[in-house]
Amino acid sequence: MKKGLILEGGAMRGMYTAGVLDIFMENDITVDGAIGVSAGAAFGCNLKSKQIGRTIRYNTKYCRDPRYVGLRSLIKTGDIYGADFCYNQIPNRLDIFDVETYQKNPMDFYVVTTDVETGKPIYHLCPNGDATDIKWFRASASMPMVSNIVEIDGFKMLDGGISDSIPIHKFMEMGYEKNVVILTQHDGYRKKKNSMLPLIRLKLGKKYPNLVHDLEVRHIMYNKTLDDLKELERKGLVYIIRPENPVTIGRTERDPEKLQALYDIGRKEGLKHIRNVKSFLGE
Predict the structure, then answer these.
(1) Which is the catalytic residue, given 22, 38, 115, 214?
(2) What residue ranges do the domains of the chain occupy?
């Protein structure tokens, strides 16, 4: 029975996930495959490279650096999260990404992106942790309106959360029968219609109508997936970890103390789940 791990996005809400994942690593919880969406991809890759503490370390260190995130980066580069700084300078020079360990780890790591021309999700295996895989991580986390479209292998892509925020059905289709799902919103959360839709239609509607359609119905699809997860949880097919209280952190939070606080919550709440997760996975 293949065991899987599904990592929702949510920009800097991903500090919660980072805390939970570090607890997993410290307690030797392993799965056959993991799939990350958006921040779940950009931060979740550190699970495969077994780098405990790396996500919170570089985020708290560089969150106030204008090269990392902010309006200056958006104006200068077209990416609110600076692509070169985040996906080149940090992993290759400032806080080295452990490519060797990533490649040796037998766990498969997938990311979800959205094809801006078709509006369909792309599920991509990232086996090497090299520059190409890191570009896929970037594509998965490239939010519409504040990121450049990322082109790889002929695909034009943006954030995977646009088309499949919580890819439980795809992972089950791929043969992962027992799945731990880490969400970044509290129980009872329901996504609302995107208030930016008029601006999104104006900027993207003519060239990428399928992408805009995804954004128009995203709240409907997201809430349906939450309902499906509840039923799968009732049947014992998924184990869900989510914040016990609403997360109020900003999507581009630049306060290192707030990032650290959310990470600490993830660690604390992750510890509460360890015994049950091991039982669920049959460890």
Answers:
(1) 38
(2) 2-278
Handedness of CA 247, 253, 256, 259 (dihedral sign): positive
The residue from 108, 159, 164, 214 that is catalytic is: 159
CATH architecture of 2-278: 3-Layer(aba) Sandwich (3.40)
DSSP, collapsed to helix, strand or coil, labels residue 159 as: strand
Q: Quick check: is 38 catalytic?
A: yes
Give, for all 283 residues of the chain, the pLDDT tens digit.
Answer: 899 999 999 999 999 999 999 999 999 999 999 999 999 999 999 999 999 999 999 999 999 999 999 999 999 999 999 999 999 999 999 999 999 999 999 999 999 999 999 999 999 999 999 999 999 999 999 999 999 999 999 999 999 999 999 999 999 999 999 999 999 999 999 999 999 999 999 999 999 999 999 999 999 999 999 999 999 999 999 999 999 999 999 889 999 999 999 999 999 999 999 999 999 999 8
Is 159 a residue of the active site?
yes
235 contacts: CB under 8 Å, gap ≥ 6: none
Query: Closest Cα to residue 204, out of 146, 243, 258, 278?
Result: 146
